[in-house]
Give the backbone structure.
Amino acid sequence: MLNINFVPDDYVQNNESRRTNLIYLVLFLLVMSVLCGSFVSIKLRQRAFAVREDEVNRRMSEAKESLQQFEELQAKRKEMIKAALTAAELLEPVQRSVLLASLTNNLPAGVSLLQLELIQKKPRTKRRVPPVGSKYQQAQNKKSAGDQEISQEKLLETHISIEGIAPSDLQVAAYIEQLDKSILLDNVALVESRERKVENEALFRQFKLTAMLKKKVHLTKADIAKMKSKRETGPNVF
């Protein structure tokens, strides 16, 4: 039996063409949607990376500021330590233990110390004359006066008062002679020497001496070691 198709060929071709075009359109829309989605995803990632980069830059900037502040604090700390060491050197140029060792090592036989006192004083200065002349000269006078006040802090005088007992004035004189040879002391003088009776009714001489610590005294470790090594060998010249 014959199969007769009453549909025109043109109609069939048009349907197939429309179907093909529809498929291409759907595929085009799918591809465009994928591309748009990729573009949006890339933009979102770029924005997230930009935000993260800004955050990293901000943290690096804060870390840089913190590091700079830390370095400034370290510099100030070093300056404070240096100032403290300088002040300590000005207030106590020679350690008291070294000075005490010098005083005790020079003691003759039978002589004992009862009291030791250290007093620091500013040196006496001349009376200031009121500034005269021009303003420039007055400013120069004020500047020189300020420099003089600062330099006076470096010229503090250390006065030493020594009290002790000795069997006789001969030992006192020998002690004064040893202190005169010391590289630490200057202006050693006898203030008082009087007779004193102790518990066993033995007579001793109670004496009082004054001295000054020499300025710009710098003892090396070798000098201190030499002083300590001579403690048991008798008086020394330190």
Strands lie at 112-121, 157-166, 185-197, 203-213. The first strand starts at residue 112 and ends at 121. The helical segments are 9-91, 96-105, 135-153, 169-180, 221-229. Confidence is low (pLDDT under 50) at residues 234-238.
